[in-house]
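Re-run requested by the PI after the first attempt was lost when the workstation crashed. Everything re-entered from the original request form. Ligand of interest: LZUJQKHR.
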Amino acid sequence: MINVAVIGAQGRMGTTVCSAVEDAPDMNLVARLDVGDTLDTGSLNGAEVAVDFTVPSVTEANVHAVLEAGVDVVVGTTGWNEETLAGVRTKAEETGRSVIIAPNYALSAVLVMSFAEKAAPYFESVEVIEMHHPDKVDAPSGTAKTTAQRVAAARGDLPESPDATETDPAGARGAKIDGVSVHAVRLRGLNAHEEVLLGNPGEQMVIRQDSFDRSSFMPGVLLAVRAVIGRGGLTYGLDEVMGI
Ligand SMILES: NC(=O)C1=CN([C@@H]2O[C@H](COP(=O)(O)OP(=O)(O)OC[C@H]3O[C@@H](n4cnc5c(N)ncnc54)[C@H](OP(=O)(O)O)[C@@H]3O)[C@@H](O)[C@H]2O)C=CC1
Ligand SMILES: O=C(O)C1=N[C@H](C(=O)O)C[C@H](O)C1
């Protein structure tokens, strides 16, 4: 049995993760932690793995505290950048622990990012649209940022998508992430959705995924909890864990 602690346990994702861990035949939920709880060996209560779904402003400090307490970490919280990822990689190496951080644990989203990366060099234009519930605090989504970064890297020296826009005072063309336009929609009724639009003269390809419900993230989260033990260092994204 794997002893698991959940940080952000009262949040939308945290409550879903607690239930998924309780229902998993090979896991024990040993701690539900939230705002104001110190993260140390006492509060982690024998956990081998801590799962963090909190907020971008606190997740980095949480991960460092958990690693210092000798516990491996699975992170779903967004807000990571190259610098904060490098800090976690170093801390994981220093403490001999393991961390998996993924912007999206839905298997469909992991595959969309992979397919988009593969397709990107074959199209003149690529744009990303992410659509979420209006209670989300960050925009664009971590998934959209990572998608755009992977698309841009896969396109290498190819020119950016053509765009004759000369005036856009209201930002209608979206955010540019590594030269790729990313558009964020916030709409009551939605949960988490992403489209990658790829265009060439006379043709279009749309790669889309829909997380209709937070249950969509649970197989990926449980997979990461099982995979993180003994893995070593930092793994970013679920691709390697899924073997794609
Ligand atoms: N990787 C993935 O697959 C997914 C990632 N996410 C990401 O996960 C994160 C959480 O999303 P969601 O559950 O919707 O957000 P919520 O706001 O519902 O949950 C966040 C929880 O973290 C708590 N929290 C805030 N600060 C701390 C702290 N210092 N220590 C412990 N707990 C704290 C909040 O408490 P309080 O409300 O009292 O402040 C709240 O209960 C976001 O970054 C989101 O983008 C979401 C879905 C899937
Ligand atoms: O806040 C959310 O809901 C989600 N956050 C993650 C992100 O920002 O990419 C993953 C998913 O999109 C749901």
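Saved to the shared folder this time. The mean pLDDT is 98.
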